[in-house]
UniProtKB/TrEMBL annotation:
Family stated for the protein in its record: Belongs to the RecF family.
Name of the molecule in the record: DNA replication and repair protein RecF
One Pfam family cited in the UniProt record for this chain: SMC_N
Protein function: The RecF protein is involved in DNA metabolism; it is required for DNA replication and normal SOS inducibility. RecF binds preferentially to single-stranded, linear DNA. It also seems to bind ATP.
Residues binding ATP, per UniProt: 30-37
Localisation: Cytoplasm
PANTHER family on file: DNA REPLICATION AND REPAIR PROTEIN RECF (PTHR32182)
Keywords: ATP-binding, Cytoplasm, DNA damage, DNA repair, DNA replication, DNA-binding, Nucleotide-binding, SOS response
Length: 358
């Protein structure tokens, strides 16, 4: 699965741009503020239906324009292709797959699976559990089919239970949601555990290649206390939930502990090592998706050289080339592009224009 053509119209600093990328590695170079990240953002939008920037889709409309349009053609392994489109104007955002108006974000996610590695990727280790849950759930979503419907039902029941708690409704109205919560929490928990086991199995080989064999461990934390199951934990914590006004335990509070040589990875000092470790985790995820479903996600790597010296850059580039699939990797300057990417298609971005492969 890869992009065979990409068109941007009035998106960020680009008025009108079309690129025909390589099915393997695409290197994008350009000065600060030339539009490299915006190109990756456009691809990300097409695969996720939203931006990775905090500001939401509206500011992505080019200054002075009324709407942006993104289009992509996606080649799939059986020789077929899909067309994806996104249009954003003042009325809202519309998605299209193969001309179909009823396209949802889920359709985009399934049509163009992609994995983003940005300069802040180390926050996966440093910051709160939300980032690690997001990391886990991206992978679980793509490989464990029971996960997403259960997660959706769980969140719906959680919202209702929290509403009852916040509004100080009688106990019976709170616990009325417990059976639905428990049923779905167990499915979510089982899918995540199975996924982390698979991921863990692939990690030593990847860590060996990228980190030189430091033992990395992953420990999944379910989000509730005790070994007697979620139903028991919910019941035992009911009075505390009533006082707090929300459900304090459950899969929505789960976490993934990442340790290197028995030290919590966020205490591992070097930012560069943290970036390499996080990238290793993301690449194992990408490989797992290929092994389990035959899908290679498109890799988007923004400012690959940030935090990394020449040796780590080279090791990472070799790994990306080994894994295969399509990638888009940005660099400030051509001199930062590692040797292992010398066969990549090269694009140069300048003043809202993209120069074709040279
Ligand atoms: N809606 C918009 N309309 C016009 N220009 C915009 C809009 N949004 C952002 N820009 C501009 O687009 C330019 C490209 O930004 P982008 O983040 O893609 O650059 P970059 O090449 O990744 O830079 P860096 O290497 O510094 O991260 C910036 O000058 C930014 O101010």
């Amino acid at each position: 699965m890869h992009l065979t053509r990409l068109r941007l119209h009035d998106f960020r600093c680009f008025e009108q741009v079309e690129i025909v990328p390589s099915a393997t590695t695409n290197v994008i170079t350009g000065d600060n503020a030339s539009g490299k990240t915006s190109l990756l953002e456009a691809i990300f939008f097409l695969g996720r239906g939203q931006s990775f920037r905090q500001s939401g889709p509206r500011p992505a409309i080019r200054r002075g324009a009324n709407a942006f349009t993104l289009n992509a053609e996606i080649g799939v392994p059986d020789g077929l292709s899909h067309r994806l489109g996104i249009h954003r104007d003042k009325r809202g955002i519309a998605y299209r797959r193969d001309g179909e108006n009823a396209t949802t974000r889920l359709d985009l996610i399934n049509t163009l699976p992609l994995q983003m590695i940005d300069p802040n990727v180390h926050r996966l280790l440093e910051q709160g559990p939300r980032y690690r849950r997001h990391f886990m759930d991206w992978g679980v979503f793509h490989v464990e089919h029971t996960f997403f419907p259960a997660w959706r039902r769980y969140r719906r029941a959680l919202r209702q239970r929290n509403r009852a708690l916040k509004s100080r409704w009688p106990k019976k109205d709170v616990i009325a949601w417990d059976a639905e919560l428990v049923r779905n929490a167990e499915l979510v928990d089982a899918s995540r555990r199975a996924y982390i086991d698979y991921l863990y199995a692939g990690l030593p080989a990847q860590a060996q290649r990228l980190l030189g064999g430091e033992p990395v461990t992953l420990e999944y934390e379910s989000g509730w206390r005790g070994d007697d199951g979620f139903g028991h934990a919910l019941a035992a914590n009911l009075d505390q939930d009533l006082r707090a006004g929300f459900t304090q335990q459950g899969p929505h509070r789960s976490d993934l502990r990442v340790s290197v040589a028995s030290t919590k990875a966020r205490d591992w000092v070097s930012r560069g090592q943290q970036k390499i470790l996080t990238t290793a985790l993301l690449l194992v995820q990408a490989e797992l998706l290929y092994q389990r479903r035959g899908i290679r996600p498109v890799l988007l790597i923004d400012d690959m050289a940030a935090e990394l010296g020449a040796r780590y850059r080279e090791v990472l580039a070799e790994e990306i080339a080994r894994i295969g699939g399509q990638s888009f990797i940005t660099f400030l300057e051509p001199s930062l592009v590692p040797q292992a990417l010398s066969d990549a298609a090269m694009f140069h971005v300048e003043h809202g224009a993209v120069a074709a492969p040279c």
